[in-house]
Design a protein that fits this description.
With 121 residues, the chain is mainly α. It contains seven helices and no strands. α1 packs parallel to α6, α5 runs antiparallel to α6 and α5 runs parallel beside α7.
Length: 121
Amino acid sequence: LVEDLILITIVLLMFSEDETFLLSVQQQSSEQNSHVLLEKISGWFSDMPAVSSGINLGNLVLLVLIRAAITNLTFYREYYLQINTLAVISNFCRSIHNIQPFVALRFMKLYTLHLKRFLQA
């Protein structure tokens, strides 16, 4: 499982270095595909407050990456997965706009987890 996540984050890291990929992900509006997106992810995605109000693809990818980073910090503690996930998040953050409050809250949770780890060391 961890090896697969590392491979997926490396592929996302390569895609996130391209500015046209980031712009196309951010321009996917929630009004166009909101019903299709809600039906596809309602079965496996448990953070439903973010999805219930409609979420664009950029915010959803950022939310999944933050969730993967938090899971890695609490359970796996795999160094390369954490570095690659944070690199993809930083690449996404340079072009993100209209971030939803729930995504920002998860981002701050990731920040506080990193701060606690840093202060313990």
